[in-house]
Amino acid sequence: MKLNKLFLAAAVCFGSFSFACCSSSDDSPSTPEKPDQPDTPTYDMNGFPKGADVSWITEMEKAGKTWKDASGKNIELLPFLRDAGMNSIRLRVWVNPTYGWCNKADVVAKAQRASDLGFRLMIDFHYSDTWADPGNQTKPAAWAGYSFAELKQAVTDHTKDVLSALKAKNIDVEWVQVGNETRNGMLYPDGQADKNPKQFAELVTAGYDAVKTVYPKAKVIVHNDRGNIYENFQWLFDILKNNGGKWDLIGMSLYPDTYYGDDWKQMTDDCMTNIRNLKAKYNTNCIICEFGISWDDKDAAEFVSYLVQKAKANTSCEGVFYWEPECYGGWNGYTKGMFDNNGCATPTFNAFANIINE
What we know:
- By secondary structure, the protein is α/β, with parallel strands linked by helices.
- It has helices at about 55-60, 75-85, 105-115, 150-170, 195-215, 230-240, 265-280, 300-315, 350-355, and strands at about 50-55, 65-70, 75, 90-95, 120-125, 175-180, 220-225, 250-255, 285-290, 315-325.
- Helix content is about 30%, strand content about 15%.
- The longest helix is centred in the middle third of the chain and has 21 residues, at about 150-170.
- The radius of gyration is 20 Å and the shape is globular.
């Protein structure tokens, strides 16, 4: 994996980040002032991966959304995330989405922006035209009538096509998810794990082999939700192991919902134990592909800091990605961003600023 554009030194310039809620008024210019060259920070984009999925960024920008730092000054999102201590970006891929967002062209455009800033990249294939998650694993409309052999080929071709478009732009990719939150498989019903376990494993392997064809050094992730529940992972990865499925990393999601009584600290501790147990059973490290908490939860900053610190200290965990921190003001009904309802940065960003890469 090539070095990230010589972004040297652990100069997380927000090491003394101090966030407070800002007002909705803003008299600052529409884009942040660029510092004089001698004051321009350098960045260490290597070390422990700590980043975010920002797949909504282009759609939000098109809708006129803007972001502010804690003082109320307008910012550019991706440079702000880098200044805040993040070094990695995750982007989802849909096959033929209705409005075009998260299709190949949109993903390449976002990846180019992230790569130009030195971010490391994770690409997340949903293998659907829309959300793929534990409750939705719908085939792309264009693949609906395919035989299983044709479906495997479609996985191969789609994976190669998107990754080849990235590689053609000299964009490096460090991680690739083959499927998203595949608790019971993907591409239902053919790849539904409880009904067609062998076919699920074959689809995963088709994606794995396609990734390695384009990016031989990229780590391929199989992603499951409820990262604090060991049995949830044991069931799925036993199916893959017993049917010849291939993977390099085990991906996790973790979303404590304190409104419904979840204990975020216990869930995090259980997740860390789960990571160690999975490493012992499958000789595979894990990576937290998604985590989040409501921005206005009284413990939000403490939870994020605790999880990032614990993950970095866990030798079997290879990184953390906050899911869609840029969301605010009820964007698509999602409240687990890292900005308040006025689009101002919240103290949760301190969790990333206070982790220095080694």
